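Damage-inducible protein CinA
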Amino acid sequence: MNAAIVTVGDELLVGDTQNTNATWLCGRLADRGVTVRRVTVVPDEVAEIARVVNKYHAEYDAVIVTGGLGPTHDDVTMEAVAAAFGRDLVANDRAADWLAERGYSADDLVAETTHLPTGCRPLANEEGVAPGAVVESVYVLPGVPAEMEAMFESVVEEFEGTPTHTVVVDVDEPESELLDRFTDLQEAFDVSVGSYPGESVRVKITAATADEAERAAEWVRERSVLIDSES
């Protein structure tokens, strides 16, 4: 399963807010064996959100959109997702009933709070007010991290791919000296390799099975100066 993540908000683009939602979602999707192919940040603009959602919906198995839900002037995500599918925003009875059960009457809320794309599946917001929605394979979630995480967990079983296994080896050598070994490693084993330099070089080896990942990691250990080696 391939997925794309779209995070909405001007505050992300100017650096006022860290994009922790994307990081969290990438981790949870990786846990499920889902491959995240794109992470995109877009402004609070209907046309731009709709364009990106439309494009990614055509290219990937699922699209997760976070942010821009609610009653304020810059909360335009639902309108944009509706536009991407050529649908109207209409009052959703299920969302209204759920909020009523939480003690919110129509007088307590801006009317548009329960307006969702026609024919969508509403998602209850257990940690807040603004409901989410599923439109075909596009999942629209809140931007507040606690709300987003709880809502994602309510649909997490709908995201499933091929689990992978990862082993990390800390190598005490310059990254440039490892390039030929990485080539040999990928020729010898069915793995992907990432290298992340810092005080050491973290070599991340990923494979479809734990055995393959560990055998490849041992191959690296035997041919490298490790961070905890005495030399």
